[in-house]
Amino acid sequence: MGGEKSVNNKKRKIENWHIISFFLILYDIAAIHSAYFLALWARHDFIYSSIRPDFIDKFRTFVPVYSIVCIAVFWLFKLYKIVWRFASYNELVQCIHACTVTTLGHAVLINLTVGRMPISYVFWGAILQFILIIGVRFFYRFWLYEHPRLAAVKTKGRNVMLIGAGAAGQMILRDITSAKEISDRVVCIIDDNPNKWNRFIDGIPIVGGRDDILLNIRKYKVDKIFFAIPSASAADKRDILNICSETDCELKQLPGMYQLVLGQVTASAMKDVSVEDLLGRETIKTDMHEVFEFINGKSVLVTGGGGSIGSELCRQIAKHSPARLIIFDVYENNAYDIQMELKEKYRDLDLKVLIGSVRDSRRMFQLFRTYRPEIVYHAAAHKHVPLMEDSPNEAIKNNVFGTYKTAYAAMVNGCERFVLISTDKAVNPTNIMGASKRLCEMVIQSFDTKIKQGRAAEIEQLFTHKGVENADKDGTGAVYKDIKTEFVAVRFGNVLGSNGSVIPLFKKQIEKGGPVTVTHPDIIRYFMTIPEAVSLVMLAGTYAKGGEIFVLDMGSPVKITALARNLIKLSGFKPDVDIKIIYTGLRPGEKLYEEKLMAEEGLKKTDNKLIHIGCPIEFAVDEFLEKLGALMKAAYENKDDIRNLVEDMVSTYRPETEDTEK
Question: 158-178, pLDDT tens digit by residue?
Answer without folding.
Answer: 888 999 888 878 887 877 776
